[in-house]
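Input structure tokens:
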């Protein structure tokens, strides 16, 4: 019902029905907003929320049958952005989603300069500066770095990167991604040979080294 209502409102929706599957989807894909039920099989919503907040600031709306003030406060402290109590009106959920997305997009547009170690990425001018040196990147190199910097700590698989940057279906040919990652690393290393920026997570993909 939720997926149907949000799809009808013009959103693209992905649904997961267990806590473990949901967490896996969040780790491996980029979403604008997460609707999180607390009562989930295998992994509870509050456990998921705690883990999600360790690697992404994606807005989270919690949905729960627990209408206790203490529970709401605990979940908001854990990092939830909003809280909806069951039973709920579908129209209200859609309105809350629209409101939270508006707020998060305003914040995103207000802060378009991202900092990681001595690397600065200016999304307004598309400039990348490392150790006070301007780095000349190709469009795709910039897009890969932008994804990694904006979602610091998140692991992106080769498929994630290829589909996000090349806007095409990933057909298991990882040469394009590997070549661009290698070129990007070389350019960053040239600007600062003493620092590491992009980490290979074996068997999974790539992410920024944890500071």
């Amino acid at each position: 019902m939720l997926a149907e209502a949000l799809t009808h409102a013009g959103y693209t929706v992905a649904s997961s029905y267990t806590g473990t599957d949901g967490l896996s989807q969040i780790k491996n894909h980029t979403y604008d907003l997460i609707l999180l039920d607390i009562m989930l099989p295998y992994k509870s919503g509050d456990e998921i929320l705690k883990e999600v907040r360790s690697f992404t600031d994606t807005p989270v709306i919690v949905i729960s049958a627990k209408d206790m003030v203490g529970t709401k406060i605990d979940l908001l402290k854990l990092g939830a952005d909003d809280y909806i109590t069951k039973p709920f009106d579908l129209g209200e959920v859609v309105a809350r989603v629209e409101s939270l997305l508006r707020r998060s997009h305003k914040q995103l547009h207000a802060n378009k300069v991202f900092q990681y170690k001595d690397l600065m990425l200016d999304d307004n001018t598309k400039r990348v500066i490392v150790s006070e040196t301007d780095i000349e990147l190709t469009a795709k190199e910039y897009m890969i770095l932008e994804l990694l910097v904006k979602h610091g700590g998140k692991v992106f698989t080769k498929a994630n990167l290829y589909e996000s940057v090349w806007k095409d279906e990933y057909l298991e040919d990882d040469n394009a991604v590997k070549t661009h990652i290698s070129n990007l690393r070389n350019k960053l290393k040239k600007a600062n040979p003493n620092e590491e920026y992009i980490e290979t997570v074996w068997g999974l993909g790539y992410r920024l080294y944890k500071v």
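The chain has a mean pLDDT of 89. The radius of gyration is 19 Å.
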